[in-house]
Write a structure and sequence with these properties.
The structure is a homodimer.
Chain A lengths: L2 H26 L4 H17 L1 H14 L7 H7 L3 H16 L7 E6 L5 E8 L2 E6 L4 H12 L3 E5 L5 H17 L7 E3 L5 H8 L7 E5 L2 H10 L12 E5 L5 H13 L8 E7 H17 L3 E4 L1 H4 L6 E2 L2 H5 L6 E7 L2 H11 L4 E5 L3 H10 L4 E6 L16 E3 L7 E3 L5 E12 L3
Parallel strand pairs in A: 3-4, 3-6, 4-5, 7-8, 7-12, 8-11, 9-10, 9-11, 12-13
Antiparallel strand pairs in A: 1-2, 2-16, 14-15
Helix pairs in contact in A: 1-8, 2-5, 2-7, 3-7, 5-6, 6-7, 10-11
């Protein structure tokens, strides 16, 4: 087969997959919540039944892992064990228990002419989900998409190819066993990068693309996609310690935001301190952070109080370290803190520590990020902590969905209007 | 100046405009509802004060109109009169009265650990609005954008260049008089088409682009934009007459949907009739439509009952005529009606005429369009009829905003979380 034939095949393959997804999505639109619950529970049961198969298929991926240059940590994340499979099955049962978002009357409005205008939640349609490494994401994403009435095209990483196929077989078998359209969940069977590009052109068949992975993946998807994308870029999160802060609380919140899990998007990367408390607070937080092996990179003002720290560069203020490093800056007042954060932040999560009500109100209103947290750790910005039940990602966009994306963020709405013969006149 | 210098200037110009808009949008985020009301009323007053100037500037556009090949109808739409200016001023005062969307707590959730999670409505940021001909749109769009806390970059058509400039001067003067950022409303000062392309690349400064105009404009914007777009494509709207329809009502609804204003997007373009009522209904609706000079294009089944009509081609089923033409098709049952509509519709508005509750429920759930109307005219799908107060357009997208877009559709949200020292642990 020559190169042209391969590309033609890829074109046909991706279009076939997307068309099957579209057809399945039309069926899913009207499927009852009970049927979707039945499917989720059936899939959970099949995961428990096929534990051996899943672990065997996962072993094939683990064997290949060193060839893909995976780190030990990445290999560990890839590994499926009996305990982890039980957790994945239990997560499906948890999603089954979440309220069904579809059909909800979001609001209604009785018009003077007697028309009853209702806004009803409906699925988006077809979701193209692109993700890397951990195979449990295959199951989570499919569960969230189908529970919200969407068909999903899953494109996992080559590192988890066999594990993903084994999970997909279970999800598809469960669809058949519960009389749901088998193509509601499809796994892309090629790891050819060009296939992603082909899917990204099919805006008439795919309603939204969700990339979850490294910055390179997200940038590529954003630039190539012809349909809407729910993106998750950097998390350069700030903690701002105001002049009326409880400083011992400020130490706790800063340390927790930075250190509780430094490699994730809602960990703090930058500390901003009001000048009036710099003298007391900075030496204290420097001690506390150094105990946790955190490297401090300080602005000239901050260096006055933490003279043994590294000086910060301009890049430090905008950096997402995902590591035990934090930039530190001193500001003259609340407004300077807000300007600094709005300038350098990636719009993910910012916390303020203060006992001053007007300051907390001003900060909450003027900060342009997906979450503003008053007197608590930045680490709380996620779907489970916010009560969404489960999340497919955290959006740093402002359009459609912002912050944690759960079932509701995978939906749209339509107007359903009831009349009794009204004519426009 | 050579071509390269011109392009460099355009690059600098568009970036400057967008950066000023971004700065203004940051200020607007925290402006009170009262200030925005003051601005809207001030602008209304200035329109009344400067009626003579506005009519003079409009006369310059009217003089040029024949050179742009405008039809008489288009020239009439372009014309400003004292009455029309009073209506435009009154519309501003109406928008002033609408509830302010910004700061609304959309929902809140008290978490087990004591965190109070609120979802708060916020502006999108910067709107790039591209539109054609009618100069009142300049005022409406600016009013809706600023009322919802957004800065707006207006790019009107060359046909209304002088009128738009005169309106913009009023809007900007009103911003200054009420101490709001003058760059909250900017009018693009060049009609160079390339300027649009430059703006469409500035995704880091512009949060959403809204094109309003012909299909060519919308297609160009969709393919070039790097930021989200709220699109309004075709309105190929259907009326479906079910077997349990009140047939005299069905005649009224069909005639109203088709004829009340045939040139607009929510006018009906296709009539679908259940076989069981075809014999009685089709001759009756054919008479009624012919009285209104409507041309009928019929499927083979429909031709049996309306033998003197034109036969429909495949293109007719998908056509947006915007004219006194309608396609007519007969189906065996409700499911065939739903499949036909979901296949050919542009997803705008579909009506069903029926007294059968299960049929109305099934139709409402299974039809994938922005509005489903039971027993009333398709013509009701607009912002004012649905109670949105005013609209900037009707979206045929499912992402972010669907159907009529008013103030709320120009907003996003953020999470504001209140704690008392909670740490993740």
């Amino acid at each position: 087969m020559n190169a042209t034939e391969t590309l033609t095949d890829l074109e046909t393959y991706t279009r076939d997959v997307a068309e099957r997804a579209k057809t399945a999505s039309r069926e899913l639109m009207t499927v009852s919540g009970a049927k979707k619950i039945e499917w989720l529970r059936c899939a959970a049961d099949l995961i428990r039944e096929r534990t051996t198969t899943l672990i065997d298929e996962n072993a094939r991926d683990l064997e290949q892992a060193p060839n893909y240059g995976l780190t030990d940590a990445a290999i560990d994340r890839l590994r499926l064990t009996e305990d982890r499979l039980e957790n994945i099955a239990a997560a499906l049962e948890q999603i089954a228990l979440l309220p069904d978002p579809i059909g909800e009357v979001i609001e209604s409005n009785s018009r003077p002419n007697g028309l009853l205008v209702t806004r009803v939640r409906v699925p988006l349609g077809v979701v193209f989900f692109i993700y890397e490494s951990r195979p449990n994401v295959t199951v989570d994403a499919a569960a969230l998409c189908v529970k919200s009435g969407n068909a999903v095209i899953l494109r996992g990483g080559k590192e988890a190819f066999h594990s993903n196929q084994a999970f997909h077989a279970i999800l598809a078998d469960a669809l058949e066993q519960t009389d749901l359209p088998r193509h509601a969940v499809q796994l892309v069977e090629t790891t050819d990068r060009e296939a992603v590009g082909r899917f990204l052109r099919l805006k008439e068949l795919i309603d939204v693309t969700i990339p979850r992975g490294g910055k390179g993946l997200i940038e590529r998807v954003t630039s190539e996609a012809t349909m809407p994308v729910i993106k998750h870029f950097d998390g350069n999160c700030h903690v701002y310690v105001d002049k009326l802060a409880d400083l011992s609380l400020a130490v706790e919140i800063t340390v927790n935001s930075k250190c509780q899990r430094p490699g994730v998007c809602n960990a703090a990367e930058s500390l901003i301190v009001h000048r009036d408390v710099a003298e007391e607070f900075l030496p204290a937080i420097a001690r506390a952070l150094k105990e946790q092996d955190v490297e401090l990179r300080c602005s000239p003002e901050a260096l006055k109080w933490i003279p043994d720290a590294e000086p910060a560069t301009e890049e430090d203020y905008g950096a997402e370290y995902l590591d035990l490093i934090i930039s530190v800056h001193v500001v003259d007042d609340l407004e300077s803190a807000i300007s600094h954060i709005n300038q350098y932040s990636s719009g993910h999560t910012e916390a303020i520590v203060t006992d001053d009500l007007p300051a907390s109100q001003r900060f909450s209103t003027a900060i342009d990020s997906s979450a503003v947290i008053v007197n608590a750790s930045t680490r709380f910005n996620d779907g489970e902590e916010f009560g969404l039940g489960a999340e497919i990602g955290i959006s740093t966009d402002k359009f459609h969905a912002r912050g944690p994306c759960g079932l509701r963020e995978l939906t749209s709405y339509k107007y359903v209007v009831h009349g009794a013969g009204q004519l426009k006149g």
